[in-house]
Design a protein that fits this description.
The complex is a heterodimer of chains A (351) and B (360). With 351 residues, chain A is of the alpha/beta class. Helix content of chain A is 39%, strand content 15%. Chain A has two domains: 179 residues, 3-Layer(aba) Sandwich (Rossmann fold), CATH 3.40.50; 163 residues, Rossmann fold (3-Layer(aba) Sandwich). Chain A has twelve helices and 13 strands. In chain A, helix 5 runs parallel beside helix 6. The radius of gyration of chain A is 20 Å and the shape is globular. Chain A starts with 5 loop residues before the first strand and ends with a helix. Chain B is of the alpha/beta class and 360 residues long. Chain B folds into two domains: 188 residues, 3-Layer(aba) Sandwich (Rossmann fold); 161 residues, Rossmann fold (3-Layer(aba) Sandwich). Helix content of chain B is 36%, strand content 14%. Chain B is built from 13 helices and 13 strands. Classes of the chains: A alpha/beta (351), B alpha/beta (360). Chains A and B meet through helix 2 and helix 3 of A and helix 2, helix 3 and helix 4 of B.
Chain lengths: 351, 360
């Protein structure tokens, strides 16, 4: 085991850690936090008060902000900044998962290095803001995201793939007949592509996922909902963890027609952990996470997705999908890599 | 007195001063220029395109509204504050004055340079923004050690946060008296001006004018969110007596107010200040307002206008009495109480006090 560290983990405050339903960042952060505690590190988690953790919990808000229907996070983010800042000397490292909200902490160079994991795609405006602040370290969650960041002039101190608690994902070698879409029901995640593909391929598709914010509701009402009324589509909306695993493990494949440069795509490893191959567009992290032809298919169009659904996906060995996750995307692997990055950042900060 | 190095931190949505609508931005513009004219070294952290005598620093290359950044995304306002406080930490300023609502909670503790914050928006729940409630509650426990400026006694009294007496100042907004000319006579019609919405009482003004059969001119922006309201509740009343003249530029305002017999301001919310009230009075035009928010503070009942119960019959009654008001007196009192010079002097005095006893 590496040296024991005093680490602050700073969550975005929208939903609790771990999340009740949707919340990839919070789920990953929960696994990271608990494993660090299990390894003997002293961890302080800054998160909403409805979070559950073995780490010390500091809660600037009693419940996740989405649950409180707080539309503007300004005040509570200020409180969070203040709490972390006041205790900065208690930590060897501050690990930030709340992206730019915590950048002002970097104004003080008298304290502790701040490592930010970039969980979301980096747009130009955010890159500009990142570069405007001094003294920060960044971690990417895929090699492609690292390239994307470096193209925008942001130095990346390490790449850490997300990991999951694989034993919690039941494996099935004998799927049902349907395909699966799971994710936000918006344009960039490609839900409408998935629906169109299923209809054209004449295969059943289960559509699960949630909607956040007015723009997404607008998109859902105008672009998604009209497409749901079809013999091939079963819409189940938002699902909890158990339901998610049940749906994933029985699916023939996960459709991942992503339109954005996906930084990681947690749902892909969740599907493969259940033995379910992934058919995804060749964007962002997809070719890193999916082994083309072994754990799914990395394709370039709706036509190729239909072809993979109809003629190719049955050739994938579901056990190979599971093994791929067990080898590359576990909590242990993720935390091993984070420990290396922490040591590296602390060393650089001191020298 | 020693000259000060002052940081002014503005919201980044639009340049300063605003082209048309934007009360906060107009106040900041006047304050900055006024302080520079008094010899202070002022650095304004605001959007590019701002016209100011202060030194301008812009952290983003466009006004946020032009860049399509939603108001709920604080990335640049946060960077703007950070930039100002980076300067303060390095000792570049004697005082930091922020106009960004409740953002300085974290920042003000980073430096011994004092921060003062003007609370331009209500720090209480209003029917104009009911969603604010929860946000305010989050803020409640943390805000009481900030140095606060309220823009009326009413805004302070209703605040959901208890502030210690020595942390709070009351400074009324000011206007540029040169932009508003005294019209000693007015004419026969009444006016109403605000952003077009129910809370600003436009329907009450129309109802009273219709009762008396008098002419009423309505002015102000119709936001896209208010178009339906305008079409449904206002448009059907428009005719040769009740007219909508659109959104006015600053140059058009003086004539608009000055030619009016009175400004009607029968508001339905606790308005913290009400710049249009001061602007109308600067032209000598009396104001008839409902007794809500700051109205009893701004208007001297019977002398610079009338403050009445929320009732369109009483509004109509007051409209009949308005000829008794001495318009020269209205102008003079406005000059004494709401000029930009008075506002600037009050802020300047506050800065000196904060610096003298840094630990207030």
């Amino acid at each position: 085991m590496s040296k024991q560290l005093r680490i602050a983990q700073v969550a975005p405050l929208w939903v609790p850690v771990p999340p009740r339903t949707y919340g990839g960042i919070e789920l990953m952060l929960s696994l990271l936090t608990e494993e660090l505690v299990a390894r003997g590190h002293k961890v302080t988690l800054f998160a909403s008060g409805d979070s559950k953790t073995k780490a010390e919990l500091v809660a600037p808000t009693s419940t996740g902000l989405w649950l409180r229907k707080v539309r503007s996070p300004h005040a509570v983010i200020e409180v969070l900044l203040k709490e972390v800042h006041n205790r900065r000397h208690d930590f060897d490292l501050i690990h930030n998962h709340a992206d730019f909200f915590m950048f002002p902490l970097a104004m003080m160079d008298d304290g502790t290095p701040i490592l930010t994991t970039l969980h979301r795609p980096i747009d130009d405006a955010e890159a500009q803001a990142i570069k405007a602040y001094p003294n920060k370290y960044f971690c990417a969650i895929s090699e492609d995201q690292k390239r994307s960041a470096e193209e925008k002039g942001i130095k990346i101190s390490g790449v850490v793939y997300n990991g999951i608690d694989v034993p919690r994902y039941k494996f099935s070698n004998w799927p049902d007949d349907y395909f699966m879409y799971l994710g936000r029901l918006n344009d960039e995640k490609g839900v409408v592509d998935a629906i169109e593909v299923a209809k054209r391929a004449k295969v059943p598709l289960v559509v699960a996922g949630n909607i956040v914010g007015g723009d997404e509701w607008n998109y859902f009402f105008h672009k998604v909902q009209p497409e749901l009324n079809s013999e091939y589509i079963r819409f189940v909306g938002q699902v909890d963890f158990n339901e998610k695993v049940r749906l994933l493990k029985d699916a023939r494949a996960l459709l991942f027609p992503i339109h954005r440069r996906e930084p990681f795509g947690l749902v892909m490893i969740e599907a493969m952990a259940c033995g379910t191959p992934v058919i995804g567009y060749n964007k962002g992290s997809v070719p890193e996470v999916v082994k083309d032809g072994e754990t799914g298919f990395v394709i370039n169009s709706k036509e190729e997705m239909i072809e993979a659904i109809l003629y190719k996906v049955q050739k994938i060995k579901r056990s190979a999908c599971r093994e791929h996750v067990e080898k590359n995307f576990t909590i242990q692997k993720m935390v091993d890599t984070y420990e290396e990055v922490y040591e590296k950042v602390i060393f650089e900060w001191k020298s | 007195m020693e000259k000060l190095r002052i940081a002014q931190v503005a919201p980044l949505w639009i340049p300063i001063p605003p082209e048309k609508y934007g009360g906060i931005e107009r106040i900041i513009a006047m304050l900055c220029d006024g302080l520079v004219e008094k010899g202070h070294e002022v650095t304004l952290f605001a959007s590019p395109g701002s016209r100011t005598k202060a030194k301008l620093i812009s952290v983003f290359d466009k006004p946020l509204l032009d860049a399509g950044i939603p108001w709920s995304n604080p990335i640049w306002n946060l960077r703007n504050l950070s930039k100002a406080y980076e300067g303060a930490i390095k000792g570049e300023f004697d005082v930091v004055h922020t106009h960004l609502d409740i953002w300085s909670l974290f920042f003000h503790n980073l430096t011994s340079v004092p921060t003062i914050q003007t609370m331009h928006n209500p720090l209480y729940r209003t029917n104009a923004d009911a969603n604010k409630d929860d946000r305010l509650r989050l803020f409640t426990g943390e805000a009481s050690n900030l140095n606060m400026v309220f823009i009326s006694q009413s805004a302070r009294d209703q605040a959901m946060v208890e502030f210690p007496e020595n942390k709070v100042r009351l400074i009324y907004n000011g206007i540029d008296m040169n932009h508003f000319k005294l019209n000693p006579k007015g004419s026969d019609h009444f006016v109403w001006i605000a952003r077009m919405n129910k809370h600003k009482g436009v329907e009450n003004a129309i109802a009273a004018a219709e009762k008396l059969g008098v002419k009423l001119l309505l002015a102000g922006r119709v936001d896209s969110t208010q178009q339906e309201y305008f079409d449904t509740y206002i448009k059907p009343h428009l005719n040769d007596k009740i007219q909508y003249v659109g959104e006015l530029s600053e140059m058009e305002l003086s004539d608009f107010y000055g030619q009016a017999k009175a400004l009607l301001y029968p508001i339905e919310w606790e308005e913290p200040f009400g710049l249009v009230v001061a602007e109308a009075m600067a032209c000598g035009t009396p104001v008839i307002a409902y007794r809500r928010g700051s109205m009893p503070e701004l208007i001297e009942d019977g002398k610079t206008g009338f403050v009445i119960d929320s009732d369109t019959n009483k509004l109509a009654e007051a409209m009949k009495m308005v000829d008794k008001v001495d318009r020269t007196y209205v102008r003079r009192r406005t000059e004494e109480r709401f000029s930009k010079e008075i506002m600037t002097a009050n802020y300047e005095k506050t800065y000196y006090e904060l610096i003298e006893n840094k630990e207030i």
